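Researcher: Quick one. two chains, 605 residues in total.
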Amino acid sequence: MSSHTTCAAAATTAVDLTKVKPYGDTMNDGMIQLSFTLPVPYGEEANEAAKILAKKMGLDEPAVVFSKDMVGFTYFVMYGKCQHTVDYTTIKVTKVEVDVMDRLECEKYIAENIKRDVVIVGACSGTDAHTVGIDAIMNMKGFHGHFGLERYHGIQAINMGSQVPNEVLIAKAIETNADAILVSQIVTQKDVHISNLTNLVELMEAEGIRDKVILVCGGPRISHEIAQELGYDAGFGAHTYAEDVASFVLTEIVKRKLI
Amino acid sequence: MGLLSQLKQKYKTLSIVGMAKNAGKTTALNYLIEEAMDDGVVLGITSTGRDGESCDLVTGTDKPRVFLDTGTIVSVPVKLYDLADAGLEILCMTNYSTALGQIMLCRVAESGYVQIAGPVNTNDQKIMCREMLAYGAEIILIDGAIDRKSIAAPDASDAIILSTGAVISRSIKKVVEETAHIVALYQLPELEDGNARDLILSKQEREKIMLIKGKQLELLDLKTGLTAGKFLDEAIDQETDYIYIPGALTNSVISDIHPAKMKQVQFILKDPTKIFIDAMHWQQLRKKGFTVKVLENITVAALTVNPHAPAGYSFEHEALLKAIRGAIDGIPVIDVKLGGEFSETI
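Model:
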């Protein structure tokens, strides 16, 4: 099998999107670099173990290009040729569909369509103590040159920080008549972020405010698809900035006539 | 006669509520769908989340797909329409938008697998069920999402089917304990007709916390009970007989209320889905003399058990069935993987 594919691969420079393979030096060579540690002493046997493992992972011609003695453990860097392909043309990812407005456009949109201050309460809830996500979206200085919601005229951004119990977050949202709640979940163990996120939805339903508030979650393990399953209006993954969230919340307020 | 045919005589809408994610809701749904096919019942199928995809979004484990028979009325969002291998006749486009696009109501024209999703909030769900009945569904099954229990609320459906299983714990004892706790909560006594009930109902739409002292009703100027324990403690005095809380009952609502006052006051809730207190804390509160009644409780029409957990362990079918049946009276319990002998137990 491999001899046939390598022959064909050598001859082509164009990408076949129905059969995408990793690119090393030439199209479709399938080259992959991986690194890992095995709990075995450094030596020839360790290298062999790493190669056998890579073979089992489906890599052709595995080679250990670097290994290091970690005292009782061995660290490896390996190369190998991936035999699998991906049909890129059939991939569908559900994303939040909104025309992203920049900060100034958002401010103009509020002035023209909502005509009052929009209140957004955000927190990193449950056991999670990592505020990096919610800060990136809410803090005035923002992240990567994208200013946070606190900088937006017409948005009253309330960042409650980390380890905020769901009840406290909801009490705040009710007290401030919030238009939207943003929840961030960065580091959680054993999928505890899932039960924490559903608990928030359930509490909001019980308090009778679920259909009055736009509910958004975000974090590296969150996708829009999971958000829907959990009962959220939107989910934002990595590489999301304040304007993405603001654009969604603002257009949703208008769409749902929550003005 | 199958379980579904019996349920159909009593209820129009049934919610399938899971004790946990992967407790076997979809398996229970499929079980009832199969019965409907055998008995020629026209089903309406919807979901508070998403159903029928083959792989779990969170755990990556396999999920049961949903096969629908000709004639079934089903809610499908635009983006999942193309993914259905059943032939779907579009009946109407609803106003409910979800992360997967607008929801359409469809009739299955050619049987096959369908991915289902429905409105995410309970109010929309309720209205849509009425539309589905109007299109000819005889009974509607609402599949819950994850462990979301708000769809158990009595105004969302006529009765519920509670799915429980090995996924809750590796110990059968714990599975039984947690399940019995939820069933007990759902069957909490309703506040009897009389002065207190009339007073509460007269002001219920204000969504305020109320105190009843004899024939007097006092509305508290409080937007929510959450984190307001201290305030409630001050508001309750020696004359207070009842306290009505329209929203959620959590530890932060009651933790600051003085034990003597807890004992003296009868707590009233709208329905059991408002309770967010686990089995252990609940027992501790009961010991302190804390009592709760609800305006409306929940009819648990049946329990389904799934002895397999996606984490790989499982219980003996018989052992789990027996333990659950031993702990819960008067509700049919079905092993969805085994099926069969429920009819004698009804």
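Residues 195-294 of chain B form one domain.
Researcher: Thanks, that's what I needed.
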